Amino acid sequence: MQIDFGDVLRERHRWALEHKEKGGLMMGCYSAMVPEELMWSCGVLPVQFLMSSGDYGESQAYLPPYVCDCSKSIFEEYVNGTYSYLDGLMVSHVCETIRSLAGILSVRRPDRFVHVFTAPAGNDAGARRYLKSELIGLGDKLQSLGAVPMSEERLEEAISVYNENRALISELYRVRGGNPGSVEPEEVLSAVLSAGIMPRPQHNQMLRGFLKTIHQGPEKTGTRIILSGLLFENEVAGRGNLFSIFRESNALVVWDDLATGMRYRFERIEDLEGGDPLDRLVESLMGPQPAPLRSPAEGKAGQLLQAARDYGGEGVIFLIPKYCDPILFNIPTLTQILKEHGLPALCLEVSGSLPEGQMRTRVEAFLEMISGSPFNV
Ligand code: SF4
Fold first, then answer.
1. 322-360 per-position pLDDT tens digit
2. Which residues partner with 225 through β-bridges?
3. pLDDT for 268
4. Do the domains 5-148 and 154-370 sit in the same CATH topology, yes or no?
């Protein structure tokens, strides 16, 4: 059976509506730093917002012009009915923009549930107690909307399903990193993005099938690159310009640290036997997080360097959404550390669809510069 995650992305609202017909709540989410396992255990399907480019007409009346396209896209599609199947939204406090957007949407759509989830910055016993009580309170709020009450057993099961998903995605990245010609970068990113919108048990089943269809074949040669930052869904599922340029320039994506890619699925929740699963969820949410706000740039640089060592990466391309402060703040530290270790980097500003002309020139020049100089420090 042909497994096409790109098709899942293109048809994501149809998938969602089909799920809605089966019953259960659906919650729009932004970023991996929301307790998806808890929601799933209460019978709520978390649906990650994907960023579509387009005419952000109505958002201009509500949002300042200097906010990212990501927040404009969420605003637009939330109020124009595209996400009519959602029962509310939950965002994690990864930046002030998304927190403010949640506030604006709660006024614009007062009929829908809105929750800003914030894991504490501290890491002590008091912070853990606080977060645990927040999660219990969240479970109660979901129950008042009609969700299933929280239970240890269901949460344990949800953690196990989500951990399997993380393991399968890690395996996909390991296979691709070993032979990047064996699977197209859009297919890998579509698989990860689909995880955020599909019921996870179903996604696990599709991923297991997808992994079996990847044939190693002879190793492809080309300039090995790593992507970091954030990429819009239309570049992945809508056959945008970036990956065409890579193919035409004989560049191979060996790994990514995209907020919509591996970074989203990186951290596994400890599934040690016994103990309260809620405590383990707390530990996971308090631990290293896949967002610049909660993970120091030094750690991120270490991951990029390690991926370059593991998979022969020759350079890193940072995809930086326009007006995205959290990613922008990290860039000087990241590029400096990579430079000190001899790993070249290119920074590209992205805003919806990537314009072809200037981007092609910059990407091709970068690839020409790094080609044949494998990173080996
Ligand atoms: S993290 Fe960046 S792209 Fe996402 S909402 Fe915040 S500013 Fe926008």
1. 899 989 999 999 999 999 999 999 999 887 555 677 888
2. 253, 315
3. 59
4. yes
The amino acid occupying position 222 is G
The residue contributing the CA closest to ligand 1 atom 5 is 98
Question: Do strands 113-117 and 88-92 pair parallel, antiparallel, or not at all (unpaired)?
Answer: parallel
What is the per-residue pLDDT for 238? Answer: 67
Write out the DSSP string of 160-210.
HHHHHHHHHHHHHHHHHHH-GGGS-HHHHHHHHHHHTTS-HHHHHHHHHHH
Phi first, then psi: what are they for 214, rounded to 5°? -80, 115
The DSSP output letter for 148 is P
Residue holding tokens 């100089």? 373
Among 49, 93, 98, name the best residue to mutate to test ligand 1's pocket (greatest count of ligand atoms within 8 A of Cβ).
Answer: 98
Please say whether the beta carbons of 319 and 230 come within 8 A: yes
Question: What mean pLDDT is reported for the chain?
Answer: 87
Regarding the beta carbon of 352 and ligand 1, being less than 6 Å apart is answered: no
Phi/psi of residue 114, nearest 5 degrees = -135, 130
Distance CA 8, CA 26 (A): 17
Share of the chain above pLDDT 70, in %: 90
Q: Which two tokens stand for residue 270?
A: 């400890």
For domain 5-148, give the CATH number.
3.40.50.11890
Fold topology of 154-370: Rossmann fold (3.40.50)
pLDDT digits (tens, 9 = 90+) for 84-114: 999 999 998 888 999 999 999 999 989 999 9
71 lines ligand 1 (CB under 6 A): yes
User: For residue 71, how far is its CA from the centre of ligand 1 (angstroms)?
Assistant: 7
Q: Smallest Cα–Cα separation from 26: which of 86, 84, 72, 73?
A: 86
SS3 content of the chain, % helix, strand, coil (to 5): 55, 15, 35
The terminus-to-terminus CA distance of the chain in angstroms comes to 43
Q: Where are the domains of the chain?
A: 5-148, 154-370
Query: Whole-prediction pTM value?
Result: 0.90
Nearest by Cα to 300 from 259, 334, 251:
334
What average pLDDT score do residues 11-32 get? 90
Tell whether the model's pLDDT for residue 149 goes beyond 90: yes
Question: Quick one: which of 44, 38, 40 has its CA closest to 24?
Answer: 44
CB 3, CB 210: distance < 8 Å: yes
